[in-house]
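Hey, I was hoping to borrow your eyes for a little while. I've been staring at a protein lately and its backbone has me curious. You're getting the sequence in one-letter code plus the fold written as tokens. Would you mind checking whether the tokens look sensible for this chain? Here's the protein in full, and shout if anything looks odd to you:
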Amino acid sequence: MNQKKNSELKERYHSVCKFLFISLIFLICFSNLYSQDNYKNYRINKYFLNNMKDDFVGVISSPGKWNKKDVFGFTAVIGGGLLLYVLDEDIHQWILENREESTENVSRFISDFGHGLFIGGLALSLYTLGEIVDNYSFRKTGLLCLESWLTAGILALSLKTILGRARPYAGKGSMVFNPFHSGSENHSFPSGHAVSAFAAAAVFADQTDMLFLDILSYSLAGAVALSRVYNDQHWTSDIFIGAALGYFIGKKICALNQGYTNKRYSMNFSLTPAYQGLTISFRF
């Protein structure tokens, strides 16, 4: 009993440490994107809720507006997903034969970064920080991340329920589907952690020109996705399609909000090892 309690406390401690660490990293990175404004833009209010509803509809309806490039990209993703679908059993068996206790612990640690509560908490913390220091960039990034996470969660859960693919640990094989069956063991496709992690990563990377943050965001999201396969929670095709879906959702929501501002002018200062500059833009 005491061992179980200590394990739970240790897990909570690790989660808090990871949250504080990532929050600190993003705080440092986004401190270079300060943008002063005198209007109540990107705040949790009636406008934000209406905007979130419109963005959700925009994400759902976007395939109807695809061009040839979008269709080609979609075809490539589906093709890659089908290839991995055929190889899922072989990849799963290889991973089981090469797992080690030390790497399993690391994998479980990384997996928590893709948990919905972690991503939602990070988004709200960034937004709250933006309110405290009156930082437009913090507020906008936090709310767009929150939007992406919620949208990704709804779509991922819907697909999980409709398709009902059996998870690897269920021992039923990679080609078993139980549509509309409840229970976590029937919710393998797509990977919710991969969808959420890449949806958040796409937003963070889109809201800054810092290469370091782009690499950090996508690397962490990729590690989260791979950890789900290593932990026997998902097939490889689950995380591949999940990552692509999350990336699309995050980028689409950023695109839908690109250029929105109530300010007649904005001022941004960027300081990086390769570039220093002041940008002033006017809206007429």
Notes: The radius of gyration is 20 Å.
